[in-house]
Each structure stands twice: as C-alpha cells, then as structure tokens.
C-alpha cells in the first residue's frame, strides 16, 4: 500500500537523507522531504515521507514518538490538500464576488 506520512517535531539538523534513512527500515521509501522556510532556508520542523508499506498503522505505531537527532517525532498519515475543511477552497463564500 502506498502512503504519505506527515512527520512533525523534527530537529533543525534533520535533512531529507536523515529522514529517508530513518524510515527505510519500515518500507520502501519513494521520497522523504523536510520542508524549509522560503525566506531563511531553515527547516520548518516537519516533513513528508512517501513510501510503500504493508500496514500503515504498524509503521505509525513503530515510528511515532521515536527520536531522530534527539527529538521525538510525531508521525501521522498525511491529509490531502483538499480535505482541510471548509476554508480549503471550493466554496469561497464571502470572498470576492462581483464588482460593479
């Protein structure tokens, strides 16, 4: 099963390679990316891992709370961009409209 995981509470020193190496023991990692601030280039403290796994619940339970570079990470299945709730797009009630 293909899954995308959200990994939070990352130490500033964690990079893409470190994140990938950590998750390699739990499945076939397709990509691992630490998100950086556009202006400073510094890590924002979270990232995403895309991987092929047999059971996502097992991977989450085995990795959530484990330390990487001294900080206990938080691991959840990532949400689709379109499923963030009523303000995620679609009906933009109250925003814009016709201008005369």
TrEMBL record:
Residues 69-83 have a biased composition (Basic and acidic residues). Residues 3-80 form the RRM domain. Keywords: RNA-binding. Residues 65-100 are annotated as: Disordered. Residues 87-100 have a biased composition (Gly residues). One of its GO terms (molecular function) is mRNA binding. It comes from the Bacteria. This is RNP-1 like RNA-binding protein. It comes from Chloroflexus aurantiacus (strain ATCC 29366 / DSM 635 / J-10-fl). The lineage of its organism: Bacteria, Bacillati, Chloroflexota, Chloroflexia, Chloroflexales.
């Amino acid at each position: 099963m293909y899954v995308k995981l959200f990994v939070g509470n990352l130490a500033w020193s964690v990079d893409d390679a470190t994140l990938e190496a950590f998750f390699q023991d739990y499945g076939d990692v397709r990509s691992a990316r630490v998100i950086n601030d556009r202006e400073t280039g510094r890590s924002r403290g979270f990232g995403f891992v895309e991987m092929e796994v047999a059971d996502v619940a097992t991977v989450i339970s085995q990795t959530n709370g484990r330390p990487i570079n001294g900080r206990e990470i938080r691991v959840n299945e990532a949400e689709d961009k379109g499923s963030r709730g009523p303000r995620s797009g679609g009906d933009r009630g109250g925003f814009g409209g016709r201008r005369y």
